[in-house]
Amino acid sequence: MMTLRLRRYAHWAPIPLRLLVGYGFFAHGLAKLEKGPENFVRIVDAIGTPMPHMMAWLTILIELLGGVAVLAGAFVGLASIPMAAVLLVAMFTVHIQFGFTSIKLMAVTSAGPQFGPPGMEADLLYLACLAALVLIGSGPFSVDQWIAKRHG
């Protein structure tokens, strides 16, 4: 009985996914710009990525533009492809060696909690959210829905 009542609200499910994934990607891209893109270029170079300067800037652009696209629900299926690629590269080149868990409390000091390196949990959660958005659509208040209604 409760499931039937809740089912009528299921079309709203993509909105929190879009807000989380879109903002998360945009915030990560913005942080790379604010900390200085050359710092990120050095990180990309350190993990052995070919053409580190170009790949670092490509990653930043994918995070910024993909984040905005997902927030707006615009071309989410298409935007998800490079976004998933960024996540997979991060997961397999950086995070996988630290296991699954993203939050590793190492100690609590007078300066506050100290955390270890993040595992692949957040990467997998972002990938799952992108997959869900591709499968169920961008939902209400999205550019994708507006386009579908205009051309439907």
Please describe what this structure looks like:
This protein has 7 helices and 2 strands. It has helices at residues 2-7, 14-34, 37-46, 52-72, 76-95, 121-136, 143-151; strands at 105-109, 112-115. The protein is mostly helical and 152 residues long. The two termini are 33 Å apart. A two-stranded antiparallel ribbon has the order 1-2. The chain has one domain (15-151). 24% of the residues are buried.
Structural class by secondary-structure content: mainly alpha
**With helices defined by DSSP (H or I, 4 residues minimum), what is the helix count?**
7
Oligomer: single chain
Overall 3D shape: globular
Strand order of the largest sheet: 1-2
How many strand elements? 2
Quickly count the domains. Answer: 1
The helix content, as a percent range, equals: 55-70%
Largest sheet: 2 strands, antiparallel
Task: State the low-pLDDT regions, or none.
Answer: none
Radius of gyration: 18 Å
Our estimate of the beta-strand percent is: 5-15%
